[in-house]
Amino acid sequence: MIKHLPNAMTLGNLLCGCIAIVAIMNGEMELSAIMVVVAGILDFFDGFVARLVKSSSELGKQLDSLADMVTFGVVPGLTLFHLFSGSILSLNQLSVESSSPAYMPYFMFSVTLASCLRLAKFNIDTRQENYFIGVPTPLNALVTAGIPFIAYDNPAFGKYVHNPALLIAYALITSYLMLADIPMISLKVKSWSFKAAKEIYFLLIGSLLMLIILKHAAFPLILCYYVILSTVFPPDKKLEL
After folding, report:
1. CB 87, CB 167: distance < 8 Å
2. What is the pTM for the complete model shown?
């Protein structure tokens, strides 16, 4: 039975994604965010458990991508769609015609499309064994899940969270970062020694400090911090572009 534990964890990731989708449809953004966090934990450890019990397989790899597509692809797109749909009244700030609300929110699913392409590329890219190329979909989904709560900490930020121009910019930028041929720090830790994983420690400590000081407003900054840190500590591998 223990051999099936990694796949069970992956299916748990998928279940969390399904619950998160229903939660968003019901307007329960807090439950959705919790499910994304739980799914992120399961996704982080399922590979580790697979190696521990020596049950890594091609099935597990494909199952992981399919589960990630729902939880870390569909859910962030739907989250942004929900935020955009709540900002219809501010569309006049962009001088958009009245027909715009009918289609503009669907631009938010560019994140979902980019996530799908990112996951497909990951499965056939042999360069991403010890590092990522582009921002990983779980990190992007976790950051996106925290955006709706920025206004909870400071209601004055509500106009930014629901601003259509900012949401479109965020969707397009994050979509690009997931697909860009940029080497990124891998979050799959193989050694906990400081020398071998110093960039991971910097990422965790810096992110924790930002969360403590800025609370939910730190989420977009954590994504920027991750990209910058990947530049400061580039993966020790030659990237064949």
Report:
1. yes
2. 0.84
